[in-house]
UniProtKB/TrEMBL annotation:
Keywords from the named record: Hydrolase, Membrane, Transmembrane, Transmembrane helix
Lineage of the species this protein comes from: Eukaryota, Fungi, Dikarya, Basidiomycota, Agaricomycotina
Transmembrane residue ranges: 213-233, 253-273, 339-360, 366-384, 389-408
Organism from which the protein derives: Mycena sanguinolenta
Gene Ontology molecular function: serine-type endopeptidase activity
Record family assignment: Belongs to the peptidase S54 family.
The keyword Transmembrane is assigned to this record: yes
PANTHER family: PRESENILIN-ASSOCIATED RHOMBOID-LIKE PROTEIN, MITOCHONDRIAL, RHOMBOID PROTEASE
GO biological process: signal peptide processing
Protein name: Rhomboid domain-containing protein
Domain Peptidase S54 rhomboid: 325-408
Short name of any one Pfam family annotated for the protein: Rhomboid
Domain of life per record: Eukaryota
A Gene Ontology term for the protein's cellular component: membrane
């Protein structure tokens, strides 16, 4: 009874909907008579060469770093030289009558005033040492003050160029002491040695002050002390001899800019030659050798570490420790020999009649041009014979920089100082 009532209710509420039926037809795909071409046979994969695996080092970043570094260091030196010169002119002007400015003020007057100020500073330093050592014994205090007075007097008696050379030598000694620390060895190898395959550029600058061997350190100190002061004196005199030469209170920043720029140029020359000339030759020979032996790794360092000698010519002298020396031409380099060659060439051209004395034999001197020319010939011979102990390309690059700077350097320095100088007001103007 309930079911019949539900059916009647559902019929009235939900009407019946008729859905038509559609017939389903299947159509088979048509068969074509065209044939599909067979797939092309796969070409055999060509094995990668050794040069493709390890890539090719670049010289772009190193060139940009050297150029920008030279521009920055010269601009900084010229700016601060102008500032110091203006300060000394103002001091000497107040000490003299206004009518004498600036006609009677010379560069020598400013240097003499700077030396007098240095004397006062050293005397104050000696007085401070005496005050701080009052609690010590009489003998100990006398020894300390005597050593301080001796060092101060020696520092005062030398030229300004030799003072800056001594500071560079102290920096080299400090870096050499850092090499003796085993804890600092990884840091020094990463930051104070220029590796042409590392891709780093800052090591071109830091490697200038790095010497791992005490023999190389002694040579750098000896040549820097001898030729550095003469180069600084030459730059100072050339500045005074120019027709439009400006007053210059100090030449130490000019010399420092020249030294750093020469080192950067020498390092860049060595980097470019080793990467663009020696590297392709070494890779081509290693590619031929890799067909007979399995490759151990795909990195520059691992491949070149076991590289055979690339020089076809043999050295004149064979030593017992020659096998322990590095044989590939891309070994990391450190040292300021490139900048030192620039100093030697500048000295030889600036003072052609000068002579240099040697330690052995005693009391024997040779003309400076003969000595520098002999060293250059020795570097050329080292390149021809394939010697690896010294960086001969950096030596020749530094020598070329020194020769070019001898011709164009003083005028360039004068032009740069005039460009970065502030316009000076006329005397008597408010």
């Amino acid at each position: 009874m309930l079911w019949s009532a539900f059916r009647q209710c559902s019929r009235r509420t939900f009407p019946h909907i008729h859905v038509p039926r559609r017939s389903f037809h299947y159509y088979s795909p048509r068969r074509t008579t065209a044939t599909v071409p067979p797939p092309a046979p796969a070409l055999p994969l060509q094995p990668e060469t050794l040069a493709q695996k390890i890539g090719r080092p670049s010289v772009r970043n190193q060139s940009i770093f050297a150029i920008l570094g030279t521009c920055v260091v010269f601009t900084y030196a010229a700016t601060w030289t102008n500032i110091e010169t203006d300060e000394w002119i103002e001091k000497l002007t107040h000490a003299r009558a206004p009518s004498t400015w600036p006609h009677t003020i010379t560069s020598a007057d400013m240097r003499n005033a700077a030396n007098f100020a240095l004397v006062t500073e050293l005397r104050e330093g000696l007085k401070n040492v005496g005050i701080r050592t009052e609690g010590l014994g009489v003998q100990t205090r006398n020894v300390i003050m005597r050593v301080w007075a001796t060092v101060a007097q020696t520092y005062l008696n030398v030229t300004e160029g030799k003072r800056i050379c001594w500071k560079i030598c102290l920096l080299n000694v400090g870096v050499w002491l850092a090499w003796k620390s085993k804890r600092l060895q990884p840091f020094m190898l990463r930051n104070f040695v220029h590796d042409p395959l590392s891709g780093r550029s800052s090591t071109m600058l830091t490697s200038m002050f790095s010497s791992r061997l005490v023999l190389l350190l002694a040579l750098n100190v000896f040549f820097l002390d001898g030729f550095g002061s003469s180069s600084s004196f030459h730059l100072l005199k050339r500045q005074e001899q120019l027709p439009d030469g400006q007053l210059e209170a100090s030449s130490r920043l000019h010399f420092l800019a020249f030294f750093i720029s020469a080192g950067l140029f020498a390092a860049l020359t060595s980097h470019i030659i080793r990467v663009k000339v020696l590297y392709p030759r070494l890779i081509s020979r290693l590619s031929v050798a890799s067909n007979q032996r399995p490759a151990t790794s795909d990195t520059w360092a691992s491949v070149l570490r076991s590289a055979p000698p690339t020089s076809r010519l043999r050295s004149f002298i064979r030593s017992t420790f020659a096998s322990s020396l590095p044989q590939n031409p891309l070994i990391p380099r450190a040292g300021a020999t490139g900048a030192l060659y620039a100093l030697m060439v500048l000295t030889a051209l600036g003072f052609p009649n000068a002579e240099i004395a040697l330690f052995y034999p005693p009391d024997y001197s040779v003309p400076v041009q003969w000595g520098v020319g002999s060293l250059l010939l020795l570097d050329i011979l080292g390149i021809w014979r394939g010697w690896r102990f010294f960086d001969h390309f950096a030596h020749l690059g530094g020598a070329a920089f020194g020769a070019v700077y001898y011709v164009y350097g003083p005028r360039f320095w004068n032009w740069l100082r005039a460009g970065v100088a502030d316009p000076r007001p006329e005397p008597g103007s408010s």
